[in-house]
Amino acid sequence: MINRRALLTAGVALGALTVTSKFGEAGSMTATDKTVDYRNLSDAEWRKRLSPTQYDVLRKHGTERPGSSALNGEKRKGTFACAGCDLPLFSSDTKFESGTGWPSFYQPLPDAIGTTSDRSLFMVRTEVHCKRCLGHLGHVFDDGPKPTGLRYCMNGVALKFVAQEGGQT
């Protein structure tokens, strides 16, 4: 006779087996797979997905050296997405040269980012993070160009560029 406890245990085991079979095959899940729950990935899973520098910035709130990102000079049409989960974050149409050494934008895509107060380094700044995976992207300041007056100063290593087809400038 099957009681509720045995049925529940079997259900949990079946769920765990399903998850294990999906994630157990190396490389079988891609960053664009919408079934991935990015907010609940373990530290070890993030370390597998990201380079050491990406991990430091996205997961540990690090900062890359200014001028070190190849994305500073990216001029093609396209989209800048989160390097952690591929969520589109910024259009190339909103990128501008800020002179800071980091890729800068005056406006994110709708529902792409979140912000929190950052009180580190003896100052108050507004941290910008990816809305899907909560990865640290950089900071936003109020000294940007029109029309928003904002400067989203992003770590290039936290972004990946996806060129628009036929996106030459």
Please specify the SSE layout and strand pairing.
Layout: H1 4-23, H2 43-49, H3 52-60, E1 78-82, E2 88-91, E3 95-96, E4 104-105, E5 113-118, E6 125-130, E7 136-141, E8 151-154, E9 159-163
Antiparallel strand pairs: 1-2, 1-9, 3-4, 4-8, 5-6, 6-7, 7-8
Give structural notes.
- It is a single chain.
- This protein is α+β, with helices and mostly antiparallel strands and 169 residues long.
- It has a domain at 52-163: Metal Binding Protein, Guanine Nucleotide Exchange Factor, Chain A.
- It contains three helices and nine strands.
- It has helices spanning 4-23, 43-49, 52-60, and strands at 78-82, 88-91, 95-96, 104-105, 113-118, 125-130, 136-141, 151-154, 159-163.
- The strands form two sheets. A six-stranded antiparallel beta sheet has the order 3-4-8-7-6-5.
- β1 and β2 (88-91) form a beta hairpin.
- The longest helix has 20 residues, at 4-23.
- The radius of gyration is 19 Å and the shape is globular.
- Residues 3-31 have low confidence and may be disordered.
Q: Strand percentage, roughly?
A: 15-25%
The low-confidence runs, each spanning 5 or more residues with pLDDT under 50, are 3-31
CATH topology call of the domain at 52-163: Metal Binding Protein, Guanine Nucleotide Exchange Factor, Chain A
Relative helix content? 10-25%
Average of per-residue pLDDT values: 84
Largest sheet: 6 strands, antiparallel
Radius of gyration, in angstroms, nearest whole number:
19 Å
Strand order of the largest sheet: 3-4-8-7-6-5
- Helices and strands: which structural class? alpha+beta
Given the C-alpha coordinates, what overall shape results?
Answer: globular
**The CATH class of the domain at 52-163:** Mainly Beta
Give the N-to-C terminal Cα separation.
71 Å
The CATH architecture of the domain at 52-163 can be named as Beta Complex
- The succession of helices and strands, N to C, reads HHHEEEEEEEEE
What's the number of helices?
3
